[in-house]
Design goal:
126 residues; mainly alpha; 0% strand; signal; ShKT_dom
Length: 126
Amino acid sequence: MPFYLVAVLLFSSAFTKEDDDDEPLCKDRLLKSECAWFKQKNYCEGEDLAEFLETRCPKTCDICARLCKDRWRTEFCQIIKDKGNCAVTKATVRTMRANCTKTCGHCDELLQKPPRRRIRPKRRRG
């Protein structure tokens, strides 16, 4: 890997903002121009920078689309969907979200980080 590329990676890492729990997973964390440069140079497809770009340029590198797929055979997921079984019970939703993500329409949920839950103390009555 050329020295200038290493320098760019180190420099841009210094200015990459920290992950925010409420931020979507499918959002570039580097400048748009930086992510575009990596894509133009075909680094999105390579193995060398895969982990770096997966977290910093997922939208530009089309990583988000790759995340949304069915684990089970699509034909099987389609049968489940056609029978209306994508969201029968909480357990079914959980199973279908994990295994028939695309067919059952759970991609948006997959690409969003869950909101932070705030625990509020119970008030005493009395």
